[in-house]
Amino acid sequence: MSANATDGKCPGCHRISQRPPSGRGRPPPQGTRVAWALRKLVLWGCERPELNFENLEDYERFLGQVSLHLRHVLSAHCYDTVSNFILFSKEYVLAQEEYPDLEEFYRDYDPPILPGRYTCVGLACDLTTRLSALEVHYPGLKDSVYQVSCEEEVDNAEWYCSTEVPPVNTCEKEHVLVCVRIRLSGRAGVLLLDPGYHVGVPITVMEDGQAPQTGAIKANTARPEVVRTYRYSYWPDNPAFVSWEVTEEREGKAPHHHISLIHIARPFLSGVDVAERRNLVYPFKTLVGRDQNGRLTCGLYFPLRECSRTTVTLFYHVFGDLQQLKVPLTHFLEGDVLSVSTGALEEKVKAAVSGVARGMGRSGQDIRSSLVAVANLLHDSGLVKQLEDLNEAINDISKDN
Fold first, then answer.
1. Contact, 237 vs 229, CB < 8 A?
2. Who's near 378: CB < 8 A, 6+ residues apart?
3. pLDDT at 6 over 80
4. Average pLDDT of the chain?
5. Read out DSSP for 155-195?
6. Could you tell me the end-to-end alpha-carbon distance of the chain, in angstroms, rounded to an integer?
7. Region (Disordered) spans which residues (predicted)?
8. Residue 275: how many CA atoms within 13 Å on its side-chain side?
9. Nearest CA among 311, 319, 119, 297 for reference residue 224
């Protein structure tokens, strides 16, 4: 099996700065509240070749090899949106003499990929690198593997998918996956890998919707009361997109449905500059460990709010039983004098921090210092207000999607 005659290489890439107008779409108003999006233009690469498989048996053997690498990435790396936020915020605080306004600093900031502290972008990069080891067995694989972008919770999906590329002036591109273009017995499809959303199996999506199309996937979440189901299919009449349908169920509530859209036609070359940057000010932060199947084993999460109004949830397992502890973020403020009641809480916090750290393979001091850093950053009401305003401005950009 090998790639087709096209080698997937080209002398350049496409810089998309504006989408041709269609029906309901209109360019967003110019000004500082959208300048970040217009300045950080999305880059698409050239279309990649397909990896050809003569029969289902060959493809399933390939899936087995890919699954090994996916499982390794899931179990070896945490999903971490906390560390880059801390670094970004600390650097802004130090640069306030030059950048009194967070929005200006945000536009000029170059988000790093922190080793071992990956968001979806770093996880996709790591997995892409690991898959290249299979090139010796599957010639052409390296050219057929690429990162793709995802727009989450799209309301106006028909308009969004009305052309070959997404509406760049109104998109956030907040998520990144790994994609392999395939052709199985003459039928077109893609293989999607999503370590950022803890999906523990490769996702096969065939253009005709037939086998070996992956069926419904029960998703892994940090909240046991929440059940999510994922379904994937090509968007009707536009094979440039895959629809990712999410159904969320909570006891006593009606199911909630939404659609996210994955642009598979071309490689997404702006993972760091756009997706990683967007994540910096996203208003919910998560640090979780996973097992090789994507099940969440331990972690912590919290919203971006002023410290006095924020609670951090820590969770871990003891002999298979889930343990959860909700802690006021103010508990981690440096210099805080513990009262008798907070002293009692501290013993529980120590146990929870130790459980989370043990499950992640990190030190308790590492976890604790991250929480102290977050508490002190969110104790700055001015910084929190600017973070909230910037997030709202970005949401305004994509409100018509």
1. no
2. 304, 305, 306, 307, 310, 329, 384
3. no
4. 89
5. S-HHHHTSSSS--GGG----EEEEEEEEEETTEEEEEEE-G
6. 40
7. 1-31
8. 27
9. 297
Q: Is 17 helix (H, G, I), strand (E, B) or coil?
A: coil
Other residues' Cβ atoms within 10 Å of the Cβ of residue 97: 6
In the sheet with 311-318, reading across from the earlier edge strand, the strands are 79-80, 284-290, 296-303, 311-318, 321-328
Output the CA–CA distances (angstroms, integers) from residue 310 to 84, 91, 280, 304, 330, in the order listed.
19, 22, 18, 8, 8
The bridge status of strand 51-53 relative to strand 175-184 is parallel
Euclidean distance between CA atoms 118 and 81, whole angstroms:
7
pLDDT-derived band at 7 (thresholds 50, 70, 90) equals: very low
Q: What is residue 40's three-state secondary structure? A: coil
Cα–Cα distance, 18 to 11 (Å, whole number): 22
Could you report the per-residue pLDDT of 158-189, keeping only the tens digit for each?
999 999 999 988 888 999 999 999 999 999 99
* Residue corresponding to tokens 């067995």: 137
How many angstroms separate the Cα of 324 from the Cα of each of 252, 304, 346, 355, 361?
A: 22, 20, 14, 10, 19
